[in-house]
Amino acid sequence: MKALITGASSGIGRGMAIELSKRGYELILVARSYDELTLVQKELLTSSVVIALDLSISQNCIDLYQQLKNEEIDILINNAGFGVFGEFTSTSLDRELDLIHLNISAVHILTKLFLQDFVKKDRGYILNVSSSAAFSPGPLMASYYGSKSYVLRFTESIYGELQKKYSNVYIGVLCPGPVDTNFNTVANVQFSVKAMTSERVAGYAIDKMFKRKLVIVPGLSMKFCHLFVRFVPTKFLIKVAYHIQRKKAESNEK
Hints:
Layout: E1 2-6, H1 11-22, E2 26-31, H2 34-41, E3 48-52, H3 58-68, E4 75-78, H4 93-121, E5 125-129, H5 142-164, E6 170-174, E7 179-180, H6 183-187, E8 196-197, H7 198-210, E9 215-216, H8 220-229, H9 234-253
Parallel strand pairs: 1-2, 1-4, 2-3, 4-5, 5-6, 6-9, 7-8
């Protein structure tokens, strides 16, 4: 049994690697930092391979698939991603394009290539990591919220296609709320809601993946928020989201 995890050097990706290793899976860990990947590797109980690669470059995603397509991978977890904070007119276009390439294009490419193989074998698991941000507008983090909405709807749509074919292949999407990870530092934000630990989120996500749940939302507060946004007008959600994001910025400035 073998699993491929992107963004595996820290946070949820690291937590999933440790969880799957406990369940007997061999691991292929991908992230940009070789040194950080080797630190995760030392925590694992099973054999593993680390690949240092920048998946915001589309050709690297294709090359990764070509390198691994004969490895009999059972699980693909698309976890790599980051956020950009600030008003859309002020944030870096280059940084946002990197975000789009990593948060959207890499997920799209790897899902497509590995899913084609999984469908032929009629087995396999794909878990795409989105965010609770996918459920609402996100002023001051427009690119990030938009990218995570894409991952959510993209995954749900493929799930529908697989169901119509009576496929045994699973695809699902993880939508966590605030998680205590390095993401906060990269995006330059602090959360007003208490963050869950990455280990707790990872364990919950893996359990639900094997139970074949489509949309995985860890934590009661996030489940409530998911339900809440279904019944609230969009313009009101925008005002609430802006207020929350503004408070994050003010906390960072203190």
